[in-house]
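Researcher: Next entry in the queue.
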Amino acid sequence: MRGVSRRFGSLVVLDRVSFSVAGGQIAVVAGPNGSGKTTLLRCVVGADRPDEGEVLIEGRRSDETDPAQRAAVAAALDDIDFFPDLSVIEHLELMAYAHGAEAGSVTEVVAELGLDRVRDQVPGTLSSGQRRRLALASCLVRPRRLLILDEPEQRLDDAGRQWLADRLLREKAAGTAVVMASHNAELTAAVADEVIDLDA
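Model: Structure for this entry, 200 residues:
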């Protein structure tokens, strides 16, 4: 991200933000509600366009319609859509198949995220915490070189947050680059190589 600014009318949400993250590193975007964390992540994935500056992913300008970027980037933002008529397991199997992942990865991820007992339910019947876990699972069943997460600790209990920290460290060890927004200081301290403080 090089000198990225994003405005909505006269409101400046991002003001010349620059940072980079390499494979095997985790960058945590911090700041209070309304500081622009989600807007920054939307600019990273190409769902929102900066007014100034540029976002590059593996040397290419970020564009969510680019097949190469879609193959490299797994993202769970707040506005994630699920297939409403597919069960949890069907949704994850389709995500894995579409990205050329091993079929066995779905079973492992469902168990890891505690989604076994809701595997046959459709997303509309899930609790908010279960939907958050499904969003994370949708990223983890597919190959990825860049993982984008918007406050993934939300609606996770203490055990869930510990699992998340461990999982993020495994992503890092596997060489995945991670950019995530978080309010949780303990999680940030456990995993971050860099903190981008939008309130600074």
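Model: Strands lie at 2-8, 11-17, 26-30, 52-54, 56-57, 60-61, 73-76, 146-150, 177-181, 194-197.
Researcher: Noted, moving on.
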